[in-house]
Amino acid sequence: MPLIVLFLLVVFILIVLFTRIKIVPQSNIYVVERLGKFYAAWETGVHFLCPFLDRVAKRVSIKEQVVDFKPQPVITKDNVTMQIDTVVFFQITNPVQFAYGVERPLAAIENLTATTLRNIIGELEFDATLNSRDLINTKITETIDHATDRWGIKVIRVELKNIDPPVDIKNAMEKQMKAEREKREKILRAEGEKEYQIKVAQGEQEAKVLRAEADKKAAILHAEAEKEATILRGEAIKEQKIRIADGEARSIEVVQQALADSLVQLNKANPNAAVLQLKALEAFQKAADGKATKIIIPSEIQGLAGLAAGLKGIVESDQPTESSETVSQVAKNGTTISQDAP
Fold first, then answer.
1. Average pLDDT across the chain, whole number
2. Contact between 64 and 90 (Cβ < 8 Å)
3. What's the maximum distance between 2 C-alpha atoms anywhere in the chain?
4. Angle between helices 321-333 and 308-318 (to 10 degrees)
5. Which stretch of DSSP H or E encloses residue 25?
6. Stretch 244-273: mean pLDDT, rounded?
7. How buried is 336 (Cβ within 10 angstroms: 0-12 exposed, 13-18 middle, 19+ buried)?
8. CA pair distance 18, 11, nearest whole angstrom
9. How far is the first Cα of the chain from the last one, in angstroms, to the nearest whole number?
10. pLDDT tens across 87-104, in order?
11. How many Å apart are CA 254 and CA 251, to the nearest integer?
């Protein structure tokens, strides 16, 4: 019997000792009290509780936590009542302060968030509230983080999840949004029409410029063609005059040579004055053989009009009708005979 009691006592002691062994998991801290007073904050690892003296007062997770609070009614500066719900991101940085600093810390954070939100929204108008989410989030985060420092809580971020205005405000906002869209549509349509008119005017202006440039180029080309034609006509006239002058020079040379030959022959024959005059006319008849374009008759022969009839018969037997008419013209005018070259 005593052995059984001893065995049972040993088993009881082993069970008690085994249950006093505590393993703290990762990202957790155990707050331990001894005889009702804070004793230690155990971190990750294996720990042993003294039987009947120590106890784990609070198990604290040091991971970042997220709490979604229910919507809170708030009133803006322009007396618009709306519902806003918030999301708070926080982390416990001091487990001891968290365990002994405040009772029901999550409820404390919720109430603190609601009161801070009311204070901030009360200073803003409705439109500013909708457009200033980042500003509101920053102000709430700074205020709550400062207030929860003594509780061992670090508020990382506070976000406004939903902003629910009244129904009449929603209807007015929808109408305003519709009006803004119609306004933008009209503006875009007007701008498109304006751009279209501008493009059309620019196209017409460019077309006129191109037509004017084409007309200018055509006028320049026409003027250049006229200039070249004028130059060519001038060169042709110049060439014609040069050829006429050359013909006249050759005619004079022929006349002079014929006269010289006649004088030489006459000098050898020792003729009288009448014979000399007839020989001179014969020389001019040879000069007017169709190769010269103009014949110059010396003034000494102008008195031979009486010999024109006799000379005409001689010329008609040797030259064409055109040469006879030429000699007759010489006899009448006594100055110059013109004949076109063949």
1. 78
2. yes
3. 209
4. 160
5. none
6. 71
7. exposed
8. 10
9. 177
10. 999 999 999 989 888 888
11. 5
